[in-house]
Write a structure and sequence with these properties.
Blueprint (H helix, E strand, L loop, with lengths): L5 E2 L7 E3 L2 E3 L8 E6 L2 E6 L6 E5 L2 E5 L3 H10 L4 E2 L2 H7 L12 H11 L5 H29 L3 E3 H17 L4 H22 L13 H28 L7 H9 L10 H32 L2 H5 L4 H11 L8 E3 L3 E3 L2 E3 L4 E3 L2 H5 L2 H4 L36 H18 E5 L7 E4 L1 E4 L4 E6 L3
Parallel strand pairs: 1-6, 7-13
Antiparallel strand pairs: 2-3, 4-5, 6-7, 8-10, 9-17, 10-13, 11-12, 14-17, 15-16
Helix pairs in contact: 4-5, 4-14, 5-6, 5-9, 6-7, 7-8, 8-9, 9-11, 9-14
Bound molecules: protoporphyrin IX containing FE.
Cofactor: heme
GO biological process, one term: secondary metabolite biosynthetic process
Protein name: Cytochrome P450
Length: 447
């Protein structure tokens, strides 16, 4: 039985779309502020810190209590997971990979991919990260020289470098080879996001409408490309000693008796998941961090010694990814609540990260020093940019190492300021992106 929170039947509590925060209910907790084209949009909640809202046919409960969130993510992982509705929303571009799997399927997949992110592998990956970043910076310098302009949209370079890094480290293939897959995956992601904004009713996914037709054809295109890479790698798998993610996955397809045996469709879904999760979030983190540094130039000199603080503050203000809502599959007791199965738990990360009650009056300001001492600067605060509990981000160490390498190399070669053409418009397309990119003026440090 549910008690002690307000109920709202009006729809999404907070929806970031088209760069403008649209609040179509009164139920947002606390206050959430956003800046759109210089205009500050302020939402104030009137429904309290716990409430229920509906997403289509799925009831979701907003939870903001730190202890209950921790208890839920850590203790109740076995009784919760991604709902059918969420799996439907992402199935065309990431399928049933580890991000969307539940129960034993998730457990087996997580076991298979974990070795690819162990400390010894990360050490090897660092070399690729440096190499890919230097190549990107050379390319960037050349682009500036040939255009004669100082302005670039930096986001596209961050997408390119993180895509190249994940291709080389996880799939041992070059960016050029994986480029087509990335483009198709990005198109699919946008198509799925647009399709999800339309009314869902039972059976609607089978309708041959514009979105469904395009999604089907793009999905086929991408899977054919992946099949080509898999086929060429399968031939060499027995003789090579590769330990990248794709090799780990392919070796599991050969295990006839293993409980963990996976088929080619699963390998493809896992590849799509890592293509998506492995660069989308990281490029977003880098782009927002550069936007913040370009707007707060004094931090460019300090950041060399204090990268951790800057990266944390960037993820607080612009969390690249939020934990997906988790559906409760069995009745559970959570704090003072009895949660029935079928209810999803949703944590409003943006509201928590910008709450004045938690972070103080300057919650909306860029102040990396609030993370000066990671042990003591966040007591009593909930900060979970990589999720929490057994399903925490598998690529966390990878992403942080990559972010530090890319930022450190960029800062060693350029200083930068935000362009007057920058339009602040965060938009949620599964990750939190700057809708119009981040144009900056770059100045080579040697000149
Ligand atoms: C700044 C960069 C990143 C951020 C902020 C981020 C954030 C997250 C978050 C919040 C989750 C939890 C999702 C949930 O609970 O529903 C997650 C899961 C995951 N992330 Fe990341 N991530 C980042 C980079 C990466 C990278 C580089 C990889 C792979 C190379 C990766 C792979 C994954 C996978 C596979 C999961 C699913 C884990 C599971 O369910 O067991 N992520 N990430």
């Amino acid at each position: 039985m549910l008690r002690n929170f307000d109920v709202c039947f009006a729809g999404h509590p907070c929806r970031l779309s088209e760069g403008i925060v649209k609040v179509n209910v009164r139920s947002m907790w606390g206050a959430q502020q956003w800046q759109e084209n210089g205009r500050r949009v302020i939402m104030r909640g009137v429904m309290g810190k716990r409430f229920i809202f509906w997403v289509g046919s799925e009831p979701r409960m907003c939870l903001t209590d730190k202890n209950m969130i921790k208890e839920f993510f850590i203790k109740h992982n076995n009784h919760s997971g991604k709902s059918w509705l969420q799996q439907q929303g992402t199935k065309h571009f990431i399928g049933k990979g580890v991000l969307m799997a539940n129960g034993m399927e998730w457990y087996h997949q997580r076991q298979i991919v974990t070795p690819a992110f162990m400390a010894d592998k990360l050490k090897n990956y660092a070399e690729y990260m440096v190499q890919c970043t230097n190549e990107m910076l050379d390319y960037l310098s050349e682009a500036l020289r040939s255009s004669g302009s100082t302005e670039v949209e930096i986001g596209q370079y961050m997408v390119q470098v993180t895509a190249e890094i994940i291709c080389r480290t996880a799939f041992d293939s070059s960016y050029q080879k994986g480029k087509q897959i990335f483009e198709t995956l990005t198109q699919l992601q946008h198509l799925c996001s647009q399709a999800n904004q339309h009314l869902y009713f039972p059976g609607s996914r089978f309708f041959p409408n514009k979105y469904n037709r395009e999604i089907k054809s793009k999905k086929k295109e991408m899977e054919n490309l992946l099949k080509e890479i898999i086929a060429s790698r399968k031939e060499s798998i027995a003789t090579s000693h590769r330990t990248d993610l794709l090799s780990l996955l392919l070796s599991e397809t050969n295990k006839t008796k293993s409980k963990k045996k996976i088929d080619v469709q699963m390998v493809m879904d896992e590849c799509k998941t890592f293509f998506f999760a492995g660069h989308e979030t990281s490029s977003t983190l880098l782009t927002w961090t550069i936007m913040l540094l370009a707007s707060n130039t004094e931090w460019q000199t300090r950041v060399r010694a204090e990268l951790n603080m800057v990266i944390n503050e960037s993820m607080r203000l612009y969390p690249p990814a939020f934990p997906f809502p988790r559906m409760v599959f069995d009745d559970i007791r959570l704090g003072d609540l009895d949660i029935p199965k079928g209810l999803s738990i949703w944590v409003p990360i943006l509201a928590i990260n910008r709450s004045e009650d938690i972070w103080g009056k300057d919650a909306n300001e860029f102040k990396p020093e609030r993370f000066a001492d990671a042990q003591t600067s966040t007591p009593g605060k909930l900060f979970m940019p990589f999720g929490m509990g057994p399903r925490t981000c598998i690529g966390q160490a990878f992403a942080l190492r990559e972010a530090k390498i890319v930022l450190a190399l960029l800062l060693s070669r350029f200083s930068f300021t935000i362009s007057e053409n920058y339009r602040h418009a965060p938009v949620n397309v599964l990750t939190l992106k700057p809708k119009y990119g981040v144009p900056v003026h770059l100045k080579p440090l040697s000149s």
